[in-house]
Amino acid sequence: KQEVTQIPAALSVPEGENLVLNCSFTDSAIYNLQWFRQDPGKGLTSLLLIQSSQREQTSGRLNASLDKSSGRSTLYIAASQPGDSATYLCAVGGIYGGSQGNLIFGKGTKLSVKP
Amino acid sequence: SQTIHQWPATLVQPVGSPLSLECTVEGTSNPNLYWYRQAAGRGLQLLFYSVGIGQISSEVPQNLSASRPQDRQFILSSKKLLLSDSGFYLCAAGQGAQAFFGQGTRLTVV
Q1: Strands, DSSP E only, in chain B?
Q2: B34 and chain A: CB distance < 8 Å anywhere?
Q3: Which of A12, A49, B47, B93 has the fewest Cβ atoms within 10 angstroms?
Q4: Best mutation site among A32, A102, A104, A110 for testing chain B: the one with the most B CBs within 10 Å?
Q5: What is the full per-residue pLDDT of chain B (110 aa) written as tens digits?
Q6: Contact: B104, A45; criterion CB under 8 Å
């Protein structure tokens, strides 16, 4: 059974700092991996999607890497801003019939960027 | 782009009452559909997912059930709610691409 772990559980940094969020998963037979952002009391917004054959994806100040063999992914946020404050969630897509099956989430990292 | 509609946004139900939460998807066909529950301090727990009409996989044994009567409709139900069913319920759609989430239903069982 796939298990997804995110560390740290919470992180507080001053504005402008670069930071790294970590995600690990127990079963390397994955279809893809996604990073999401969740603001308090809201739904989730997809940030980056990495297919199992890819090593990284970039969008603006965000860069996500995937090392499937070691069961790890990192989300790098450059030049953090107060508006980046949110909970960041990692989700691993399982394989079902050659496509994506389940989508298992970690518990998230709650990020606070201080002005 | 995909749009996920979930309703209601909030719901207060007595213990033992039935539940029906509906999720509909626009902008895609034959998506995977997911129901999650987010309880305080426990993260997003996958309850059910569906890869097609009538195909439901249950991830966690519980007193909830799910149905997919149409390609873009996913329903979460319970015959008798428990206090422990309280939480934030999220519907999502996706298939090998970025998953999209609805805005969620906050259910309080009293």
Answers
A1: 3-7, 10-13, 19-26, 32-39, 43-52, 55-58, 64-70, 73-78, 87-94, 100-101, 105-109
A2: yes
A3: A12
A4: A102
A5: 788 999 899 999 999 999 999 999 998 888 999 999 988 777 889 999 999 998 998 887 688 999 999 999 999 999 999 999 999 999 999 866 778 889 999 999 99
A6: no
